Amino acid sequence: MNDDVTSHTPSGWRPDRLDRLEQLARDAGAIRVAVIYPVDGPSLTGAIESQKRGLIEAVLIGPEARIRQVAEEEGLSLGSTQIIAADTPEKAASMAVDLAISGKVEGLKKGAIKTNILMHAVISEKAMRTARRMSHVFAIDVSSYARLLFVSDAAINIRPDLGTLRDITANAIDLTHALGIERPKVALLSASENINEKIESTIFAAAICKMADRGTISGADVDGPLAMDLAISPKAAAIKGIVSNVAGHADILIVPDLVSGNILVKDLDYLAQAETAGIVMGAAVPIALTSRADTVEQRCASAALVVLVAAARKKAEGLING
Length: 322
Prior knowledge:
Structural class: alpha/beta
Order of helices and strands: HHEHEHEHEHEEHEHEHHEHEEH
Oligomer: single chain
């Protein structure tokens, strides 16, 4: 990937990394994305703006009269954007899943629908599942950090067991590969760098690292357990004498549970003025999973992630079939 996204930059200046993601997605080409129940200003604006920026071809699913009313209130031009009528969030989610299964859309995008309703529709359909557990990944642009941070899982898996944590790690690695990061550095977070039988996350982290050593997880440098400071601070790693390809330079932070991950992401968002984008990996199609508080820029960045993952999958399928 272009150094603008992932590498160190001159003091006092750095590019907008989320904007760079959008440019990469535009270069990959717009894809058809089902936008599920976009019946409020932020979700509909995010969908139409993503379309306007050349990221997606939106298929809006929800009550047509309400969608058009919101568009009028927000000053949005729907033009020839397709609208498929669905009078409830549940019906909209089910119809979007059907479109994905039939290949009529290549991605899904959350609108004004609760995450549990959307994910229930996705998980309930066998054709939407893959060999891996589904997991969520945040791509986070923190101005004080030299690269994009990817945090998983802070939205879907509440308290992952070892097998789920393996899939969470592999899904996050796949996302970074889709963004052009050839060998990401993965830190398995815990409260300490030492294995402690009373702290389950330290044991799980060590097991994940052994999976990476044996090739069960591939395509990344993996280390853990690591405390947060050791994962992102070269100074902290040096002081504590941690010698690692990952320590101090992590691209991916794998959190031990949803609660700690959610707190971490919101800390970065509100205290460090970070910008975030979110995506669900491990399903048959990528899913942009946004928060009600997300800005238009963040919603467009999430759409860009969907485009880039879809493009990477097409490329991989082409190599296999070719």
